[in-house]
């Protein structure tokens, strides 16, 4: 059974969730048993206003990763991830050649994250891969990871590759913990290491670790070649691989878009959507 850490949150996890709802989502918070954290319930903000007026809210995250807390009202729906395949994307021949000329690589990339010293992070990644002997597809991302550096033959540098295409062809994933990338990792059924930077990323990282498909997260400011190398080897653990495969099967069966459409149709067939009372 999935460990519902949201219903029995650790102090750190609870604070992360509270801060995410408060700071990122327009100063709002669907309160999550704040008394356990010694907090006063926060009752203002657009999401809480909508919720308290009975307006339906759809959350497109996986209930396998974070089950809907029991205290959330019935007008709040956790549908599962809303996925869109990039079916028309065509890979460059050089990437296809790299994939064909050896064992499956690990995917390493931090998406849109800004990194103050990308060359230092690149060297950390290269040192870790040299220790493990693994092949890797390294995504530049917005920070330009790997740019201007002579990379060894076991590393292939890419600018952009859709997650649904790439994750079907790698053995494991190292990523920053963004909501979209995290759910793409779940759907792929691959062991995943999260290197969280900010915002909601530590929350997703913690959830993946609790779910049993990820080594312990390594925040960027604590990332070293030795820690990354150990985590990369952890991604090859047969137990972790099998657990990730099982979770992938479950997440792919969730049909988040279908559940969202079903919820909307049910709402519209039962009653008119109430108009919120604005603050």
Provide structural commentary.
- The protein has 279 residues and is of the alpha/beta class.
- It has 2 domains: 11-81 and 254-270, no CATH class; 93-252, Rossmann fold.
- 39% of the residues lie in helices and 9% in strands.
- The protein has a 5-stranded parallel beta sheet with strand order 5-4-3-6-7.
- The longest helix has 15 residues, at 118-132.
- The chain is elongated, with a radius of gyration of 20 Å.
- Mean pLDDT is 83; it is low at 1-20 and 22-37.
What is the percentage of strand-forming residues?
5-15%
How many DSSP-defined strands?
7
The radius of gyration computed from the alpha-carbon positions, rounded to a whole number of angstroms, is 20 Å
In order across it, which strands form the biggest sheet?
A: 5-4-3-6-7
Helix- and strand-based class? alpha/beta
Number of domains as seen in the coordinates: 2
- Approximate shape: elongated
Helicity, in percent? 25-40%
Output the CATH homologous superfamily of the largest domain.
Glycogen Phosphorylase B
Distance between the termini: 41 Å
CATH class of the largest domain: Alpha Beta
Q: Specify the CATH architecture of the largest domain.
A: 3-Layer(aba) Sandwich
- Give the overall average pLDDT: 83
């Amino acid at each position: 059974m999935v460990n519902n850490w949201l219903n029995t949150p650790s102090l750190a996890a609870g604070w992360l969730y509270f801060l995410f709802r408060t700071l990122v989502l327009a100063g709002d918070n669907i309160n999550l048993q704040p008394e356990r954290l010694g907090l006063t319930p926060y009752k203002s903000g657009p999401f809480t206003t909508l919720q308290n007026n009975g307006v339906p809210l759809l959350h497109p995250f996986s209930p396998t990763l974070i089950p809907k807390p029991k205290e959330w009202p019935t007008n709040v729906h956790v549908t599962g991830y809303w996925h869109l395949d990039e079916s028309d994307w065509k890979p460059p021949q050089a990437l296809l050649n790299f994939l064909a000329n050896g064992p499956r690589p690990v995917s390493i990339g931090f998406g849109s994250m800004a990194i103050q010293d990308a060359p230092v992070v690149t060297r950390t990644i290269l040192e870790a891969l040299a220790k493990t002997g693994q092949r890797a597809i390294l995504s530049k991302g917005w920070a330009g990871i790997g740019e201007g550096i002579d990379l060894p033959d076991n590393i292939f540098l890419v600018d952009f590759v859709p997650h649904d295409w790439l994750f079907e062809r790698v053995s494991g994933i190292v990523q920053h913990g963004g909501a979209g990338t995290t759910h793409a990792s779940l759907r792929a059924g691959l062991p995943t290491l999260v290197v969280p930077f900010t915002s909601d990323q530590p929350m997703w990282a913690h959830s993946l670790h609790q779910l049993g498909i990820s080594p312990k997260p390594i925040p960027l400011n604590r990332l070293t070649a030795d820690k990354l190398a150990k985590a990369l080897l952890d991604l090859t653990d047969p137990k972790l691989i099998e657990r990730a495969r099982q979770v992938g099967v479950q997440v792919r069966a969730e049909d988040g878009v279908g559940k969202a459409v079903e919820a909307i149709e049910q709402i519209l067939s039962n009653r008119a959507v109430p108009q919120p009372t604005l603050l």
